[in-house]
Amino acid sequence: MGFADVIIIPSIFVGIPWILVLAFKASQSHQRFMKVLQLKADMNSRLLDRAATDPAALELLKSEAHQQIFNVSIDEPPAPYVRVLTAMQMAFMLVSGGAACLWFAPKVAPHDGQKVFTFLGGLGVALGIGALMSAVAALVAVRLWRSLKTPA
């Protein structure tokens, strides 16, 4: 077993779970953000329902002070470029993991799982290329959206 085999095999078994953990963390962060937005909307609607009967509260709502009451600060989601960069990093990890499996497949005896490594390598490369194309499309969309939002 050569030096490259010692590096590539652990990187496959560490890299793929690492990517899955990153995807799970991103999903959890998004769900948490959406829950905070829902709680904020519920709080604002309840506060407005209770304040609708009080004349002093109506005067407060007409003034500028209501901005401080209804503006709840929450952590903003990451900028679009950060999300695109993360998607590109995961795509490159998938491509490199798939390429490593494809590189390692001929070195494995046929009865030891050569077909499995070939399949996983092809799957990793295909998913990585698809994710990379999706990230590039998102980057183009972000740049176009930003240019549409800036006044001419």
Set out the fold topology:
Blueprint: H1 3-51, H2 55-62, H3 66-70, H4 80-104, H5 114-149
Helix pairs in contact: 1-4, 4-5
Largest sheet: none
Structural class: mainly alpha
Cα Rg: 25 Å
Low-confidence stretches: none
Put simply, the count of helices is: 5
The overall pLDDT, averaged over residues, is 77
What is the helix/strand order?
HHHHH
Shape: elongated
What this model shows, in words?
The chain is an all-alpha fold. The chain has a domain at 78-152. 81% of the residues lie in helices and 0% in strands. It contains five helices and no strands. 11% of the residues are buried. The model has no long low-confidence stretch (mean pLDDT 77).
Short description:
The protein is mostly helical and 152 residues long. Helices cover 81% and strands 0% of the residues.
